[in-house]
Amino acid sequence: MGKLVLYGVEASPPVRACKLTLDALGLQYEYKLVNLLAGEQMNKEYLLKNPQHTVPMLEDDGKCIWDSHAIMAYLVRKYGKNDELYPKDYHKRAMVDQRLHFESGVLFQGCVRNIAFPVFKHNQTEVPRTKIDAIYEVYDFLESFLGIKQTYLCGNNLTIADYSMVSSVSSLLGLAAIEQQRYPKLSAWLDRMEKLPDYQSNNGNGAQMLIDMLSAKITKIV
After folding, report:
1. How far apart are CA 13 and CA 9, in angstroms?
2. How far is it, in rounded angstroms, from Cα 183 to Cα 144?
3. How does DSSP assign 161-215, residue by residue?
4. How far apart are CA 89 and CA 39, in angstroms?
5. pLDDT tens series, the chain, 222 aa
6. CA–CA separation, 94 vs 76, rounded Å?
7. Torsion of CA 99, 100, 102, 106, to 10 degrees
8. How far is CA 85 from the centre of its chain?
């Protein structure tokens, strides 16, 4: 196996999703912090590896991949001892892919980034109520995704869709709490995810970091 290097920052949900996947696969890797606020992702060396200058980025024996969803799928296909985290069965994989696209386009872009970008990039201190409403709309969908007597988002087996989703959901709890009475299945799923081995070091600490960063900047929901 070639040397694995993950580039990222703890507050980033996509980076944390990759860390959860690497840990689940039992893979050893080097973790290189990229100071986004200092613009380290824009230096020449990083741009040559990733012209989109994003995190996470995975370097596997000199070959670079970015986008957390691509990284997670790649890791399971190449290093997984079985296909449980990213099934080969066409229907099961399509379900995982749907959840990954939902996390990318609706949850992360529509909620996490839609709030965080203007706060950190443009120093906005007020968040429109409509953006908070959008988070609860996502929670409604996730509650329905979990189905009846279903342990995880794609059935009763943990997949990379769960890692991807929990990285963003856990980052929004400071703005939109998940009430057990309103979201019993989502609440139980989150509790289940939080009990995974090394969850706190791979996701929980970074999620709290982002929550604290947002809390320090946001003064009002309008």
Report:
1. 9
2. 10
3. HHHHHHHHHTTSTTTS---TTT-HHHHHHHHHHHTSTTHIIIIIHHHHHHHHHHH
4. 42
5. 679 999 999 999 999 999 999 999 999 999 999 999 888 999 999 999 999 999 999 999 999 999 999 999 999 999 999 999 999 999 999 999 999 999 999 999 999 999 999 999 999 999 999 999 999 999 999 999 998 889 999 999 999 999 999 999 999 999 999 999 999 999 999 999 999 999 999 999 999 999 999 999 999 999
6. 15
7. 150
8. 15
149: number of Cβ within 10 Å: 7
Catalytic residue ranges: 12
The model carries a pTM of: 0.97
The β-bridge partners of 30 are: 5
Q: Could you tell me the CA-to-CA distances from 77 to 21, 72, 74, 154, 166 in Å, in that order?
A: 12, 9, 5, 18, 21
